[in-house]
Write a structure and sequence with these properties.
637 residues; alpha/beta; 25 helices; 23 strands; binds thiamine diphosphate; binds magnesium ion
Length: 637
């Protein structure tokens, strides 16, 4: 019999978390960097007490539980999923505040361990404060709402269950294919209950993060498809960064000459000036990447979910014979568009393909097209950066100013609004990880909390948070947390009096921007004066150094000054909501009302119906199915 140690369930949980390590390619590090949380009666005497006994496992007090989860998510992303945080909350609203954070982590496939407090397991004193009852069962609480937004879900009703749940939690958190939010709900009475835990539970454990090697036959078929292709295109997604395959991609693209389009999560896979980097792809893409996608006969997607923003709602690829090879650790992503699934780690796959494609290179005219698209895009970027709109600013000149002030190793962080589109197109990422965009959930309010997580992952890199006024108003309170932790963030707040993005979308769909501007109600409508929000005072009131700028020179000066200053600073810039980078040969499916009394909507519907006809289904048996046929042929011949 192994030895036993009597501890509360919470003490055992924290002791276990401290002893979890991960390893990849021979490099090992502790997995958890600590725990975010806000205490309430549902955790203060349980998890809270255990954290107090383990001060070497840092506790970070956030302002909003959602913000804590976002910071944890951003930390995991910036750490290439090799490090993570736990997040705890009280029961009820504290717990449900984490649901949006859980969904954000899961959609982006980023590991976070969520530990919401829960109602009493023993039930005798219920209903307790903040318990939402369900008359048909006592086995349900608000924490069951986490189930669809998490990759593993459990509830600890007896302290002895803990060991087995934790092992599953770690398996999922460290799985490249399955990772996301893991939720272990902790009834508040059980948190404080003692049990004689097996000492072995607290031994140091090292979880190896595997690199899936892929199927040899699938690689052979992929090589055949690439060799036969006249116009291939690579799409680099977040998986390239998580797998640390950036050097492998750079070598593969250089060797073969194949152009690369980057998704929001994959931007920075290649330096912006890599000769094969065509830049952003899709709805928010560059002209070159989108034209090459339109004509491609073979798309090699690496580590991407191929969401509608990347595929332009399945209108991006127009070549009637286009085929897909999908390199991905997730089987469902590997099978997208009836493609040839290469279920493999990005770095392994790129290294193997580089070896197996020795001697292959794209045709010369293809190479010339990539180069000319690239140089034209650089000119277009410079043009957009050099616009001097006066006051209010053009969004693109503000991006140019931030880029010019930033060092190559700096990180820009953003999530929602019109900035992601302009940043995707224009930001010149110089080092992997320099572009941190949460565009899986595109969650307003992620920006500042996310910036905090990014800075914690690597304090040596300056973090520029670019945030719209709408996102800032939704959740800026983690700025206080940054100040509490002595963490320097450079926040650039673009005030265009409302939703530039959705307002523009609304206008393009015939709806005239209805309900998207920050105006006073007047005569029953929201079209009065601008709301009198003073962002400078708001940020100053939270403890940040703050400045509002009116000219381009002032903007550059303010950015330079905030780069040198320790602490969190905010520069408030008024921007014109229309002055942005335009679209490039791309379309996004947002359905317009089929009938309306508004002539503008009727017109928009006509254009919508015409454009939607370009959507493709990609049902042709051109992937794994043809693989089987090809292998059979090989046997016969
Ligand atoms: C939590 C959340 N609610 C709603 C949306 C839908 N949405 C996307 S962008 C946007 C407006 C963002 O406004 P702002 O931050 O000012 O950026 P701007 O569009 O002005 O650039 C909205 C409401 C969202 N992405 N996230
Ligand atoms: Mg705005």
């Amino acid at each position: 019999m192994s030895k036993r140690r009597r501890m509360t369930m919470s003490q055992a949980l924290v002791s276990y978390l401290k002893n979890q390590h991960v390893e990849r390619d021979g490099n090992e590090n502790p997995f958890f960097a600590g725990m975010w949380g806000i205490f309430g009666h549902g955790c203060v005497a349980g998890i809270g007490q255990a954290l107090q006994e383990h001060l070497d496992f840092p506790y970070y007090l956030c302002r909003n539980e959602q913000g804590g989860v976002h910071a944890a998510t951003a930390f995991a992303k910036a750490s290439r999923r090799l490090r993570a945080f736990a997040c705890t909350s009280s029961i009820g609203p504290g717990a449900t505040n984490m649901i949006t954070g859980a969904a954000t982590a899961t959609i982006n496939r980023l590991p976070v361990l969520l530990l919401p407090g829960d109602i009493f397991a023993r039930r005798n004193v219920g209903p307790v404060l903040q318990q939402l009852e369900w008359e048909q069962s006592q086995d349900v609480s608000v924490n069951d709402a986490f189930r669809p937004v998490s990759r593993y879900w459990d509830r600890i009703n007896r302290p002895d269950q803990l060991a087995f749940s934790l092992q599953e939690a770690m398996r999922v958190l460290t799985s490249p294919a399955d990772t996301g939010a893991v939720v272990i709900a902790l009834p508040q009475d059980v948190q404080a209950e003692a049990f004689d835990y097996d000492e072995q539970l607290f031994e140091k454990r090292v979880w190896s993060i595997p690199r899936a090697q892929g199927d040899d036959a699938a690689f052979r078929r992929a090589v055949e498809l690439i060799r036969a292709s006249q116009a291939p295109l690579l799409i680099a997604g977040g998986g390239v960064l998580y797998s640390e395959a950036t050097d492998a991609l750079s070598a593969f693209a250089a060797q073969t000459g194949i152009g690369v389009g980057e998704t929001q999560a994959g931007k920075g896979s290649l330096a912006f000036d890599h000769p094969q980097n065509l830049g952003a792809i899709g709805v928010t893409g560059t002209l070159g990447a989108n034209v090459m996608a339109r004509d491609a006969d073979l798309v090699i997607a690496i580590g991407t979910r191929l969401s509608d923003f990347t595929t332009a709602s399945k209108t991006a690829f127009r070549n009637p014979d286009v085929r897909f090879i999908n390199i991905n650790v997730c089987e469902n992503d590997a099978h997208r568009h009836s493609g040839l699934p290469l279920v493999a780690d990005a770095r392994v796959a790129l290294d193997k393909l580089s070896r197996q494609l020795a001697g292959y290179r794209v045709p010369m005219d293809y190479s010339n097209r990539v180069s000319s698209h690239k140089s034209r895009w650089e000119q277009e970027t410079d043009r957009l950066f050099e616009i001097r709109a006066g006051y209010p600013f053009s969004q693109t000149e503000v991006i140019g100013a931030v880029l010019e002030t930033s060092a190559p190793e700096d990180v820009v962080v953003c999530a929602a609004g019109s900035l992601p589109g302009d940043l995707h197109k224009l930001w010149r990422t110089r080092m992997p990880g320099g572009y941190h965009m949460e565009y899986g959930y595109s969650c307003m309010g992620y920006e500042i909390a996310g910036g905090l997580g990014v800075k914690m992952a690597d304090p040596s890199r300056n973090v520029w948070v670019m945030v719209g006024d709408g996102s800032f108003l939704m959740m800026s309170s983690e700025m206080v947390t940054a100040i509490q932790e002595g963490i320097s963030l450079q926040i650039v707040l673009l005030d265009n009096h409302g939703f530039g993005s959705i307002g523009g979308l609304s206008r393009s769909l015939g709806s005239l921007g209805f309900g998207t501007e920050y105006r006073m109600r007047q005569d029953g409508r929201l079209d009065g004066d601008w709301l009198p929000v003073d962002f400078e005072k708001l940020a100053y009131g939270m403890g940040a150094h703050t400045v509002r700028v009116k000219t381009y020179e002032e903007l550059r000066e303010a950015l330079e000054a905030m780069k040198r200053r320790k602490g969190t600073s905010v520069v408030v810039v008024e921007t014109d909501k229309q002055a942005r980078a335009g679209g490039n040969e791309s379309w996004w499916d947002v359905p317009v009302a089929e009938v309306s009394t508004m002539a503008t909507v009727q017109q928009a519907r006509v254009s919508y119906e015409a454009a939607a006809k370009n959507e493709r289904n990609f049902l042709a048996a051109n992937g794994s199915q043809t693989l089987a046929a090809a292998l059979k042929e090989e046997e016969v011949t």
